[in-house]
Amino acid sequence: MTDFTATRSLFQLPDGVIYLDGNSLGPLPRAATARMTQVMQDEWGEMLISGWNHAGWMAQPTRLGDRIGRLIGAEPGHVVLGDTLSIKVYQALAAALEMRPDRRVILSDSGNFPSDLYMAEGLIRAFGRGHELRVVPPEDLADAITDEVAVILLTQVDYRTGRLHDMADLTARAHAAGTLVIWDLAHSAGAIEVDVAGTGADFAVGCTYKYLNGGPGAPAFIYVAPCHADVARAALSGWLGHVAPFAFEQNYRPGAGIERMRVGTPPVLAMAALEAALDIWDSVDMAALRARSITLSELFIEKVEATCPMLELASPRDPNQRGSQVSFRYEQGFAVVQAAIAHGVIGDFRAPDIIRFGFTPLYLCEEDITDAASVLARIMAERVWDNAIFRTQVGVT
Amino acid sequence: MTDFTATRSLFQLPDGVIYLDGNSLGPLPRAATARMTQVMQDEWGEMLISGWNHAGWMAQPTRLGDRIGRLIGAEPGHVVLGDTLSIKVYQALAAALEMRPDRRVILSDSGNFPSDLYMAEGLIRAFGRGHELRVVPPEDLADAITDEVAVILLTQVDYRTGRLHDMADLTARAHAAGTLVIWDLAHSAGAIEVDVAGTGADFAVGCTYKYLNGGPGAPAFIYVAPCHADVARAALSGWLGHVAPFAFEQNYRPGAGIERMRVGTPPVLAMAALEAALDIWDSVDMAALRARSITLSELFIEKVEATCPMLELASPRDPNQRGSQVSFRYEQGFAVVQAAIAHGVIGDFRAPDIIRFGFTPLYLCEEDITDAASVLARIMAERVWDNAIFRTQVGVT
Question: How far apart are the first and last CA of chain B?
Answer without folding.
Answer: 49
